[in-house]
Write a structure and sequence with these properties.
The structure holds 2 protein chains of 2 kinds. By secondary structure, chain A is mostly beta strands. In chain A, 0% of the residues lie in helices and 50% in strands. The chains are: A mainly beta, B mainly beta.
């Protein structure tokens, strides 16, 4: 199975900060990498797919980059509604696998 | 707008069968451009894909190796929904269970989950 490792596991940031979360795959997954946001008690919400394509309705302050094994999710200016947990997920090879999550907390 | 509405019991006894249903609105379980998935989340396992069903001239299902001997995912075209059955549950199956749509294109599905159900916490306990 392809292992997905996110870092950091948590971070504290302030409104307006630029935040970057990284995700590393245990082998090359080309660009088959998706990002989700999850708020407490809610289902994950798709933000970005195939590494850099913004899902419809997602604010443009979210962006994704990377290919191969190393990927990043960047929030250009953190907003109050962005405090949540973020997950990466590879869709390159079965079984699909998720990262362990990065919790973004208020500083 | 696609909506997925989950239903089913929140408490299951060990060795019994976990059964959940996901009702679809705004799309069809028989769609040739979707696959219908079950995913669970627990502190110990994180997010774990369990399986899917989809229609491409005929019905097919795929399952995760970890649960393959115990799981069945079935469509119900009359009610436009799909179901999860997980047999012989143990406390390790305690998790929040989600249904989710994988929107497929060009004849292929890419495990990109664009719509999710609200989640059901299922506790396995006597």
């Amino acid at each position: 199975d392809i292992q997905m490792t996110q870092s950091p596991s948590s971070l504290s940031a302030s409104v307006g900060d630029r935040v970057t979360i990284t995700c590393r795959a245990s082998q090359s997954i080309n660009n088959y990498l998706n990002w989700y946001q999850q708020k407490p008690g809610k289902a994950p919400n798709l933000l970005i797919y195939v590494a850099s394509t913004l899902q419809s309705g997602v604010p443009s302050r979210f962006s994704g980059s990377g290919s191969g094994t190393d990927f990043a999710l960047t929030i250009s200016s953190l907003q109050p509604e962005d405090f949540a947990t973020y997950y990466c997920q590879q869709s390159y090879r079965a079984p699909l696998t998720f990262g362990g999550g990065t919790k973004v907390e208020i500083k | 707008q696609v909506q997925l509405q989950q239903s089913g019991p929140g408490l299951v006894k060990p060795s019994q069968t976990l059964s959940l249903t996901c009702a679809i609105s705004g799309d069809s379980v028989s769609s040739n451009s979707a696959a219908w998935n079950w995913i669970r989340q627990s502190p110990s396992r994180g997010l774990e894909w369990l399986g899917r069903t989809y229609y491409r001239s005929r019905w097919s299902s795929d399952y995760a190796v970890s649960v393959k001997s115990r799981i069945t995912i079935n469509p119900d075209t009359s009610k436009n929904q799909f179901s999860l059955q997980l047999n012989s549950v143990t406390p390790d199956d305690t998790a929040v269970y989600y249904c989710a749509r994988d929107h497929c294109s060009g004849g292929s599905c890419h495990w990109i989950f664009d719509y999710w159900g609200q989640g059901t916490l299922v506790t396995v306990s006597s």
